[in-house]
Amino acid sequence: MELRQLRYFVAAARAQHFTSAANKLNIVQSALSSAIKALEDEFETKLFIRSTRQVRLTAAGKAMLEKAELVLAACEELKETVASVESGERGKLSIGTVQGLPAFLDLPELLARFHREYPLVDVRLCQGSPDHLIEKLRKGLLDLAFLQIAEPPADIVTECVACEELVAIHHRTHALAGRDGVSLAELAAFSFVDFEPGWGPRLLIDEAFHMAGIARRIAFEVNDLDSLLELVAHGLGVALVPETVARGWQERIGTCRLADDEICWELFVAASAQSMDRNQPLESAPRSFMKLLPIETEENAPAAIA
């Protein structure tokens, strides 16, 4: 039994005339008659009582019509569902992000925009360390992840979505108050408040001090941005944070730029390389979300995740 045969059967049952049904289907009557005959042979029963003027359904034909219409309606619904998933209108989107996501990327606002444009997409969000998020990407538990990563593994592809200079922050009455700039060597004289290893810009900052051959003392380690800022605001240490973050706390903390080469906190969106394979392209929902991101690529350079 084929869907085509069911469509022909339903058309004939509604028209109660083979010629009229064939005309509506834009096929020859012999093709419709053959399809009906094939159904009758398969079910071993007559579906129509034929006369010269019209055809009427048998009891078996009436029972079949009810079910055939349900099957065809389900097939149309299936087509619409598949088409909407392919277009990104439906589907699932799983996103991971590091805790203490930089303020220069407003993920809640992006998710709100995406929900307004694709209200039928089921969006899931989770937080974790970069290593944890990468492992979830590998296992297919996440479509995309926002994280800081120096050298992505071979099986992970990334695109830079934001980059912002880090500035030094301190208590408003700190010795650095009023300074326009400060070197890493000068900063190392003060106790630091920083993220735990693997969180936020910690790796970036550690690398900068290591490359400069400067040791520093970290008095407090946290895993969220608010705690870091509160500790600095209470005079318990200095820290390095994105400029946008510092501006938001300018009434409670002081800031000064680095006199050395600037340290930029880069935020990346990552996906598994397998999901980017030509034979297994990125799903439509993640692809639609990617279009909302401010991907930072060189002029005319194609994005790796698309």
Which descriptors apply to this entry?
306 residues; Arc Repressor Mutant, subunit A; D-Maltodextrin-Binding Protein, domain 2; eight-stranded mixed beta sheet; two-stranded antiparallel sheet; 12 strands; transcription regulation; DNA-binding; LysR_subst-bd; DNA-binding transcription factor activity; transcription
Q: Treating each run of at least 4 consecutive H or I residues as one helix, how many helices?
A: 11
Number of domains: 2
Q: Helices and strands: which structural class?
A: alpha/beta
User: What overall form do the CA principal axes indicate?
Assistant: rod-shaped
Q: pLDDT below 50 for ≥5 consecutive residues: which ranges?
A: 278-282, 297-302
Rg over C-alpha atoms, rounded to the nearest angstrom: 32 Å
Share of helix, binned: 25-40%
* Oligomeric status: single chain
Gap between N and C termini, in Å? Answer: 41 Å
Order of helices and strands: HHHEEHEHEHEEEHEHEHEHEEH
Largest sheet: 8 strands, mixed
Number of strands: 12
* CATH topology term of the largest domain: D-Maltodextrin-Binding Protein, domain 2
User: What would you say the CATH architecture of the largest domain is?
Assistant: 3-Layer(aba) Sandwich
Strand content: 15-25%
Which CATH C-level class of the largest domain is it?
Alpha Beta
How confident overall, as mean pLDDT? 86
Domain HTH lysR-type: 1-58
Keywords: DNA-binding, Transcription, Transcription regulation
InterPro entries: HTH-type_LysR_regulators, LysR_HTH_N, LysR_subst-bd, WH-like_DNA-bd_sf, WH_DNA-bd_sf
Protein name: LysR family transcriptional regulator
